[in-house]
From TrEMBL:
Pfam families, A to Z: DAGK_cat, YegS_C
GO-annotated biological processes: phospholipid biosynthetic process
PROSITE patterns: DAGK
Protein name: Lipid kinase, YegS/Rv2252/BmrU family
Domain DAGKc positions: 1-128
InterPro entries in UniProt: ATP-NAD_kinase_N, Diacylglycerol/lipid_kinase, Diacylglycerol_kinase_cat_dom, Lipid_Phosphate_FormReg, NAD/diacylglycerol_kinase_sf, YegS/DAGK_C
GO MF annotation terms: ATP binding; kinase activity; metal ion binding
Organism: Bauldia litoralis
A GO term from the CC aspect: plasma membrane
Keywords carried by this UniProt record: ATP-binding, Kinase, Lipid biosynthesis, Lipid metabolism, Magnesium, Metal-binding, Nucleotide-binding, Phospholipid biosynthesis, Phospholipid metabolism, Transferase
Cofactor(s) needed for function: Mg(2+)
Record has Thylakoid as a keyword: no
Lipid metabolism in keyword set: yes
Length: 291
């Protein structure tokens, strides 16, 4: 799609925006694109920007981290234009899942390559997400993430936040309904995966895919925090589901209920709460990706 018009929506607060955006834009211009750069605010502002300006663009490029892309989803789906990713955030798990280089200049070359991959979009209540939604420990970690620490430490900031959170972590009771099957669990965390990676490289499972139309769900029921910490290597390899103290579910839809409302995070941002109704829209987004 050389010589096309790109609407580039940038999160100026993304951890690598100030140091990497200029070179990526220069690469796109050198490849013949006309680039219309706009800064984005909150979710409502991003949706309004994309729906008002995106229809006249050949493609929409999001410059930011996973939260920026996730926040733009409603507008991107509504407009229906091809989507490019310039990974300027801390974890960049969506880029990792799609094989997009984390170097923004190399990511710009992927956009210029023009190959489109159709991917799924998860939904919880009225919120769209791409990587994962979480209830429990991961939400507490998200809440403790310090923006300055994210800029200085990058993905290691997630480990620092986790260490400060583990001491107060507790089990919570929940029910997970997938179709007619309802299961009661007592867990530290429940994760609902639409994609493959989250939390700076943790894997949802060995078989997870972002284009299979399936939600991969797991509930961590380990007996103690030391056991949970010992599971760390398995999380990064996606093998945690092999353990007896991890419940695993695969479904196109699910409903998760807790005794009292609990916050739910989507792609690293707290966006809704339980009761949470999950579904997946198959191949709802076309994204520039490596072949």
């Amino acid at each position: 799609m050389p010589n096309g018009r790109l609407l580039l929506v940038v999160n100026p607060n993304a951890s690598r925006a100030s140091q990497s955006l200029g070179a990526a834009v220069a690469a796109l211009v050198a490849d013949g694109f006309a680039v219309d750069i706009r800064q984005c605010g909150g979710r409502d502002d991003v949706r309004a920007l994309i729906t008002s300006e995106g229809a006249s663009a050949d493609a929409i490029v999001i410059g930011g981290g996973d939260g920026t892309v996730s926040g733009a989803l409603a507008g991107l789906i509504e407009v229906g234009r091809p989507v490019g990713i310039l990974p300027l955030g801390t974890a960049n798990d969506l880029a990792r899942t799609l094989g997009i280089p984390v170097d923004p200049v190399e990511a710009a070359a992927v956009i210029a390559g023009g190959y489109l991959r159709k991917i799924d979009v998860g939904r919880v209540n009225d919120i769209d997400f791409l990587n994962v939604a979480s209830i429990g420990l991961a939400v507490e970690i998200t809440d403790r993430l310090d923006p300055d620490l994210k800029r200085r430490l990058g993905p290691l900031s997630y480990a620092a936040a986790a260490l400060s959170t583990l001491g107060s972590a507790e089990h919570f009771a929940a029910s997970i309904a997938c179709g007619d099957n309802r299961t009661e669990v007592s867990a530290y965390q429940i994760t609902i995966g639409n994609g493959v990676h989250y939390g700076g490289g943790v894997k949802v499972s060995t078989g997870a895919a972002i284009d299979d139309g399936i939600l991969d769900i797991f509930a961590i029921e380990t007996a103690s925090i030391p056991e949970l910490v010992a599971m760390a290597p398995a999380f990064f390899e996606g093998r945690h589901g092999e353990r007896d103290d991890v419940r695993v579910f695969r479904s196109t839809e699910a409903v998760i209920e807790t005794a009292a409302p609990m916050p739910v995070s989507t792609d690293g941002e707290i966006t809704t709460e339980t009761p949470a109704r999950f579904s997946v829209a198959r191949h709802a987004l076309s994204v520039f990706a490596p072949r």
